[in-house]
Specification:
Pfam families: NB-ARC, RPW8
Structural class: alpha/beta
Strand content: 5-15%
Number of strands: 24
Helix content: 25-40%
Distance between the termini: 38 Å
Organism: Eruca vesicaria subsp. sativa (Garden rocket)
Largest sheet: 13 strands, parallel
Protein name: RPW8 domain-containing protein
Family: Belongs to the disease resistance NB-LRR family.
Low-confidence stretches: 1-7, 127-184, 393-403, 817-821
Strand order of the largest sheet: 9-10-11-13-15-17-18-19-20-21-22-23-24
GO molecular function, one term: ATP binding
Radius of gyration: 33 Å
Shape: elongated
Number of helices: 23
């Protein structure tokens, strides 16, 4: 909608009011005033519909509305003169009467051309052709690269991925009749941009309840061309969350706004920046919960604008745009699109039923989307039951937050029991943190007795029902795909729902014992109830640094615990002593969210994990294994992510195969101090999958790899110093998948590669191979080769010799999703 559309409606309304006053008070003008009232009342509804349509009209239509606006503005000024004229001035009254007659003629002539009818037809056509906005954002590597310059943590030298996937909704800005509201995302963008462009920096806010689309609007502003031009592409988007690591975020922001990357310490809050800002800059802080956090993350720098996105009103009202729920017709359109794949109720289906169900969502975009998706392809009888459940869930208080949790719970009733439990498991992970798919699948395999393929299907089903957001990765779901560097995210309101449902009942009897956010210590309620055993199968703890004394009040017994997730932010961490009582523990996840790897104390506790099957260590120092007698005899899967290996794999002091006799899956990813693997790793006769990836210093592999008789998957991608593969690799009897992509210094494959009779797939993107592989024609099981276009020729002879072989000259598609915030 153009500005002219808006003012035409405003002027018409004011002109009507004044004409009514003239009709009532100035009898000499009564007849002509009443005729004008009739004219304007006839066109007023049409003007209003155009005004509130939210549609951007083409320029020629805007010009036509502009002509009407000018005419009405002249009429408004004329009526003001009529109302202020004195009765004794007969000449002036006669002049004004003639001008009012001319005004009547001008408006009549305008209406004869039926211009408003054509404009309204255009409005309807444009609205019919405009799709409801869903967030199916697939950020390409090129787009990500554009942001890397503003995503480098000062001092740490580590790129931080801070792109939270936006919730899939359409936004609305509305108010009461007096506030002259407009509909659509463009109106919200226009209002926020006006605040951005009118000042010289400072704080601007976007406020609204959870799930209403604040982040979507912020992301649209980030991508808006006018915003990018205004700030000369100097934009930074960061997610703060309820439990932020403020010092890390603060250092990141300071490096961006000041240009002084790596400065330590960051200046005090009240320090006036003395530098010269060459360009305007925009910092978008998404999901800010407290004013305290906001104060810590803002700097007094001229030219820097900070856009604060929050559920609370943290910025003064005149600088805040309030995002509210959808209007009834827009809400119904969005709901129908999710439930039926079209924006209207299909013929033969009860429109009343659909309107009632959509109405129970109270215009909240996220609730409309999830509820609509849960009822997709369901019969009307099922809808009746869903409607009754939604109606019963209406809480006593009118807050949207509470209402949403009850309504969302009804949406879960469509899930089978196992899938519902898997959804609730998502509450075990910190807010606004990406959840590694590998961790989720390992959990579900162990606690719900699922096969890996079934666990993945459950993940996809939850994504399709919009109960989580599955990261877009071209490798996801393909044969031999890895999951440790692929992530899922979940909207805050959905996580709140999982927590709400999991935290019902007395703390000791809950199946999941979860901390909703990061705290300095465990909840006091846990300690007060420690005289009774806890029934929890999943325990999730989220703290800062924990010393031995911090655990002293929590002597808890977990006889049924099978999964323990420890999230913390510190450079040192004492493992909780009550782990020794978790005799049934199968999955242990230890994740340090700090900026540097943490030292784990009391690693000797691991000796008690006789049933442990899956171990995930992230951003910690791996204990020196040669100094321990720990033997994890049932450990099936171990993942070391962003860890410091140190001397853990000292070749002379430790026999890996003895420590982990049943290990089938070993992943070492982004461990930058790993130089070589111990030869004893080749004694792991049960090893099925070996992934050594993104380890830039790894220069060689053990010579006796041929002993890995069970190995089917070997991933070595992005090992930059790896110059050759041992010829023994060609003796692996069961190898099916070889990934050497991004090993840029690897110049060739072993000549005897043709001996790998079971090899099915090779990924060698960004490998500069120039020699043809003569023995490769013997790879009779080979089905798929992925390589760069300029080296595809080396496979031409193999392609002719091996039936069904696909040579894929693929584009670079490697993701940076492994980076956490």
């Amino acid at each position: 909608m153009a500005i002219t559309d808006f003012f035409a409606g405003e002027i018409a309304t004011e002109l009507l009011k004044q004409l009514f006053m003239i009709s009532a008070k100035a009898w000499k003008y009564k007849n002509i005033a009443e005729r004008l009232i009739d004219l304007i009342e006839n066109i007023h509804p049409t003007i209003k519909e155009i005004q509130y349509s939210g549609v951007e009209l083409p320029p020629h239509r805007q010009a036509q509305i502009g002509m009407l606006s000018t005419t009405l503005e002249k009429g408004k000024k004329l009526t003001e003169k009529v109302l202020s004229s004195r009765r004794w001035n007969v000449y002036r009254q006669l002049t004004l009467a003639r001008k009012m007659e001319k005004l009547e003629k001008d408006i009549s002539n305008f209406l004869k051309n039926q211009i408003l009818t054509h404009v309204l037809a255009d409005v309807h056509l444009l609205r019919a052709n405009s799709d409801v906005r869903f967030d199916r954002v697939d950020r390409s590597l090129e787009k990500m690269t554009e942001h890397l310059g503003s995503m480098k943590i000062g001092g740490g030298g580590m790129i931080r991925e801070a792109m939270k996937i936006a919730e899939a909704t359409m936004e609305i800005e509305m108010g009461n009749e007096e506030e002259k509201f407009g509909v659509g995302l463009e109106m919200g963008k226009r209002k926020v941009k006006k605040m951005m462009f009118s000042g010289e920096g400072g704080l601007i806010g976007i406020s609204g309840m959870g799930g209403v689309g604040k982040t979507t609007l912020a992301r649209e502003l980030e991508r808006d061309v006018e915003v990018q031009c205004h700030f000369e592409n100097r934009l930074l988007f960061l997610t703060v969350s309820q439990s932020p690591i403020l010092e890390e975020l603060r250092a990141h922001i300071w490096a961006f706004v000041s240009g002084y990357e790596g400065v330590s310490p960051v200046p005090n809050l009240n320090l006036q920046y003395q530098g010269v800002v060459k360009t305007k800059k925009l910092v978008i802080l998404d999901d800010v919960w407290t004013r305290e956090a906001l104060d810590r993350l803002t700097f007094n720098i001229p030219g820097c604008t900070t856009l604060v996105v929050s559920r609370s009103k943290l910025i003064e009202p005149k600088a805040t745009y309030d995002v509210e729920v959808l209007r009834e017709d827009e809400a119904l359109s969005l709901f129908c699109l999710c439930a039926f794949g079209q924006k209207t109720v299909p013929p033969g289906f009860s429109k009343t039923m659909v309107e009632q169900v959509a109405g129970e969502c109270k215009g909240l975009p996220l609730a409309l989307k999830v509820t609509g998706a849960s009822l997709k392809d369901r019969p009307e009888k099922y809808w009746e039951g869903a409607l009754k459940r939604l109606q019963k869930g209406e809480p006593a208080d009118e807050t949207h937050e509470t209402r949403l949790l009850h309504q969302m719970e009804a949406s879960l009733e469509d899930l089978d029991p196992t899938t519902r439990e898997c959804f609730l498991d998502l509450g075990a992970f910190p807010e606004d943190r990406k959840i590694p798919v590998d961790v989720l699948i390992n959990m579900w395999i162990e606690i719900h007795d699922l096969e890996e393929a079934t666990a993945f299907t459950t993940l996809v089903d939850l994504s399709h029902k919009n109960l989580l957001t599955l990261g877009k990765d071209p490798r996801l779901g393909s044969s031999y795909a890895s999951y440790y560097d692929v992530f899922v995210t979940q909207h805050d309101v959905l996580r709140d729902l999982a927590l709400h449902l999991s935290n019902k009942g007395k703390v000791n009897i809950r199946e999941r014992l979860l901390m909703p956010k990061r705290e300095s210590a465990l909840p006091g309620e846990w300690g007060r109830n420690s005289d009774e055993p806890y029934r929890a199968q999943i325990v999730s703890i989220h703290t800062g640094e924990m010393a031995e004394m911090d655990w002293s009040e929590f002597d808890m017994d977990f006889p049924k615990a099978e999964i323990l997730i420890l999230n913390f932010t510190s450079d040192k961490y004492v493992l909780p002593p009550f782990i020794t009582k978790m005799k049934r523990l199968k999955v242990l996840v230890i994740i340090n969210n700090g900026m540097s790897p943490a030292v784990l104390h009391d690693f000797s506790i691991f000796a008690n994990f006789s049933n442990l099957r899956s171990l995930w260590l992230e951003r910690v120092h791996v204990p020196e294994l040669y100094n321990t007698t720990v033997s994890l005899k049932k450990l099936h899967k171990m993942s070391l992510i962003l860890c410091k290996i140190n001397n853990s794999f000292d070749q002379t002091g430790v026999d890996i195969s003895t420590l982990f006799p049943k290990l089938a899956d070993l992943t070492i990813d982004h461990c930058d101090d790993l130089v070589s693997l111990p030869s004893s790793i080749c004694g792991m006769t049960s090893l099925n999958s070996l992934s050594i990836t993104n380890c830039p210093r790894l220069s060689e592999l053990p010579k006796n790899l041929s002993k890995l008789q069970a190995l089917e998957i070997l991933r070595l991608y992005a090992c930059l110093e790896l110059k050759s593969l041992p010829v023994e690799i060609c003796e692996l009897p069961k190898l099916k998948y070889l990934d050497i992509s991004q090993c840029v210094n690897l110049s060739c494959l072993p000549e005897e590669i043709g001996k790998l009779k079971t090899l099915e797939k090779i990924d060698m993107r960004e490998c500069c191979f120039l020699e043809r592989l003569s023995s490769a024609v013997s790879l009779e099981c080979l089905r798929h080769v992925i390589c760069d276009k300029d080296v595809a020729f080396i496979w031409e002879e193999v392609e002719r010799a091996v039936p069904g072989l696909k040579i894929e000259a693929a584009e670079k598609c490697f993701s940076l999703d492994w980076l956490d915030e």
